[in-house]
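# nightly structure sweep
# worker-07 picked up a monomer target from the shared queue
# config: single-sequence mode, recycle default, output format = structure tokens
# input follows
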Amino acid sequence: MKIKKIILADDDEDDRLFFKEALEELDDVELILVSSEIQLLSTLETLPLPDIIFLNKCFQQMNEFECIKKIKKHDPNHNIPIAIYSDTNHEHYVEEAYNAKANIFIPKPSSFEEIKIVLKKVFEIDVEEILPQPPRDKFVITP
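# output follows
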């Protein structure tokens, strides 16, 4: 499946801009940027579903794992891959993301080039291999 529509949910405006600029250099993809879990869930209710959701961990009203459960309610067939896109990559946190049924875990890259490398890797993934969930050893994507 070719990724044509992405939602990035991240409360950090600079990180959203960084992600957007990297994506623009790679592919012609529709990107919807939201800054909160409330905006994300509202977007899922009002717009056609995306091909993938990048979800940061910094939310105010619910944690990212609760948010995953709510996303799955909008996607009863579990066809939308959810990528946790996080500053935290401690093993305990990665395990918690996996147990919450995220499909990909991406430690936030520290450079523009690394973001592009990670996005290229995500675009090359066969979605069938990560739905409903990949093997644990294929869960984390790094540059």
